[in-house]
Design brief:
The protein is mainly alpha-helical and 311 residues long. The protein contains 14 helices and five strands. Helix 2 (14-30) packs across helix 4, helix 6 (106-125) runs antiparallel to helix 7 (129-148) and helix 7 packs antiparallel against helix 9. Residues 1-73 form the Core-binding (CB) domain.
């Protein structure tokens, strides 16, 4: 790999790169398409999977195919009128409601933290270091993910040397590359120190018990209490959270994901008087549409329903 290739690869987020590779492989291997592709073959590919794949998935596949052709110096077949018309027809004939992760509520956060604290104490009492480490890590991940409104990949990318935390004062987290940082300038996020459910305290407790001074903040832990040198993989985050929620007795744990922390914080913030501009600046959204996907619309009849409810 040349120096140029190295920098080009570094300019693309790992998640994006993996999803594009998967999409191109699906077109070539599973469907049997040929690259470079024609507009007609791309249109037939869309039509073939119109009933089995979501429109958002098809759009992602088109983005991957477009990127492959541009990178290889070929004309982009995905911009042709026939492809656009087929995609529009799929949206018309196969409308689908967007699936959204269930937002985690503050009361559920309190319940989870109480459960984790009890589990940590029980693990310490029987000298079960593996369990203690897992619960300390999960507590820090839960509270930092919620109060900072992080995406799942942002949590997995955090590194100890990029976090500055002071008990009772707050913390700042630097991420060299985020989804909204198109220029790759890096973004610094701040999180508050709180009287209860404190992300700073949870983070400091975790790195202290794990003896971490550098490298990924959130890592795998094996059954013997050995901490991995590498960070958690993004694909392991949802199973980890759902297993925690289920063990703590959160109903419908399978409906939650890493986005539940982000959506939960957005709903908490708006219900506590945050205006949309402040919320967007804090979380890092660049446009209103992105923000509104995470915020539950207020029910204009809720107050009337309460007022008219039978006594």
């Amino acid at each position: 790999m040349t120096d140029i290739d190295t920098y080009i690869e570094a300019a693309t987020r790992d998640n994006t790169r993996r999803s594009y590779q998967t999409a191109v492989r699906h077109f070539e291997v599973e469907w049997g398409g040929f690259l470079p592709a024609t507009a007609d073959s791309v249109a037939r590919y869309l039509a073939h999977y119109a009933e089995s794949l979501a429109v958002n998935t098809l759009q992602q596949r088109l983005a991957a195919l477009a990127r492959w052709h541009i990178d290889q110096g070929f004309p982009d077949p995905t911009k042709s009128p026939v492809v656009r018309q087929v995609l529009k027809g799929i949206r018309t004939l196969h409308p689908a409601q967007e699936k959204r992760a269930r937002p985690l509520q503050l009361e559920q956060i309190r319940h989870l933290v109480a459960w984790l604290d009890a589990a940590i104490a029980a693990a310490v009492a029987v000298s079960d270091r593996a369990a203690q480490l897992r619960h300390q890590r999960d507590k820090a991940l839960l509270l930092l993910g919620f109060w900072r409104g992080f995406r799942g990949d942002e949590l997995t990318q955090l590194r100890v040397e990029h976090v500055d935390a002071v008990a009772g004062q707050g913390m700042s987290c630097f991420l060299p590359l985020t989804k909204g940082d198109r220029q790759a300038r890096g973004t610094r996020f701040r999180a508050p120190a709180l009287a209860s459910l404190c992300p700073v305290e949870a983070y400091l407790s975790w790195i202290a018990v794990a003896h971490l001074s550098e490298g990924p903040v959130f890592r795998g832990i094996d059954r013997w209490g050995r901490i991995s040198e590498t960070g958690l993989h993004i694909n392991s985050l949802v199973p980890l959270l759902r297993a925690m929620f289920d063990a703590a007795g959160i109903p419908l744990a399978f409906q939650y994901s890493a986005h539940s922390l982000r959506r939960g914080f957005a709903n908490w913030a708006t219900s506590n008087g945050w205006d949309l501009k402040t919320l967007m600046e804090y979380v890092g959204w660049r446009d209103v549409q992105s923000a509104m996907r995470y915020v539950e619309a207020a029910d204009p009849f809720a107050r009337l329903a309460i007022k008219e409810a039978p006594q």
